[in-house]
């Protein structure tokens, strides 16, 4: 085959492969130009650090029509940003800026999994006001965790709440009727009291989730399950105590993070945020 033609065909194959990979990534994350997922927020070649804000409640996804997106971050979007950062050649580290009181366990688990399985560059977490519950779970997956002396850290535990309106209904003369095909189908319906069996089911699931949370943090932080279990009463602690207990690595702010990156990874950090 003619050398020029062969080179041309190889170029076509490479381009086609690139388009296929791009389309697969876009499909996986539900990306589109309209949703904003099609852009690369770290495209500026001067950027060396991909800054990802994890602010507000952490969900698996959010509906822009029903939620204030300023107070919500979704795991699917964070996964997307981690993928983009990983495959952007000039990005040498990822900075997770965390200010969140928590969210869905599944969402935190998805972000942690993405960090552990997708990212090869160093990941630094900076906890600002709060890195609690699911947000701390995410932070624990970073290679290095920073927090202020006054940051709220930890709150390792799981909670679920429900409302029981049955007494108010009875006092108001309202009779509640439920038709279900399963004994536990209407569990957590606020119009009826929670039965003993229903409570046991919910407590079972809370215990399982708690165990996954504790074991994941232990693995991420290089601690024993027993050490993390001893800290998993649901309470938070300030950054200074969190460092003493092994939940974070460094006390410092944004500028301390930049200095750490330069000193430990050997490049000038220029952060581009999304």
TrEMBL record:
GO MF annotation list: serine-type peptidase activity
Task: Show where the Peptidase S49 domain sits.
Answer: 121-264
Protein transport among the record's keywords?
no
| Pfam families assigned to the protein according to its UniProt record, in alphabetical order | Peptidase_S49
**What keywords is this UniProt entry annotated with?**
Hydrolase, Protease, Serine protease
Q: Which GO terms describe its biological process?
A: proteolysis
- Which InterPro entries does the entry mention? ClpP/crotonase-like_dom_sf (IPR029045), Peptidase_S49 (IPR002142), S49_SppA_C (IPR047272)
The Swiss-Prot or TrEMBL record describes its family as follows: Belongs to the peptidase S49 family.
List the PANTHER family hit by this protein, alphabetically. PEPTIDASE S49, PROTEASE SOHB-RELATED
Specify the protein name: Peptidase S49 domain-containing protein
């Amino acid at each position: 085959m003619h050398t020029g033609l062969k080179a041309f065909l190889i170029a076509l194959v490479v381009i086609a492969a690139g388009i296929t990979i791009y389309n697969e990534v876009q499909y996986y994350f539900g990306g589109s130009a309209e949703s904003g997922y099609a852009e690369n927020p770290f495209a500026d070649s001067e950027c060396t650090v991909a800054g990802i804000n994890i602010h507000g409640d952490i969900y698996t996804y959010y509906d822009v029509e029903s939620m204030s997106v300023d107070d919500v971050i979704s795991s699917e979007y964070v996964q997307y940003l981690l993928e983009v950062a990983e495959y952007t050649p000039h990005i040498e580290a990822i900075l997770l800026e965390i200010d969140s009181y928590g969210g869905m366990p599944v969402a935190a688990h998805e972000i942690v999994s993405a960090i552990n399985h997708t990212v090869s560059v160093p990941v630094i977490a900076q906890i600002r006001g709060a890195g609690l519950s699911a947000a701390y779970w995410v932070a624990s997956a970073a290679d290095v965790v920073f927090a202020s002396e006054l940051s709220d850290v930890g709150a390792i535990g799981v909670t679920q709440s429900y409302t029981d309106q049955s007494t108010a209904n009875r006092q108001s003369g309202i009779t509640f009727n439920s038709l279900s095909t399963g004994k536990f189908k209407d569990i957590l319906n606020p119009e009826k009291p929670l039965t003993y069996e229903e409570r046991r089911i919910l407590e079972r699931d809370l215990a399982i989730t708690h165990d996954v949370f504790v074991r994941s943090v232990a693995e991420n932080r290089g601690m024993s399950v027993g050490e993390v279990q001893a800290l998993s009463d649901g309470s938070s602690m300030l950054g200074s105590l969190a460092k003493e207990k092994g939940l974070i690595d460094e006390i410092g702010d944004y500028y301390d993070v930049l200095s750490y990156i330069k000193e430990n990874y050997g490049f000038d950090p220029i952060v581009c945020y999304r």
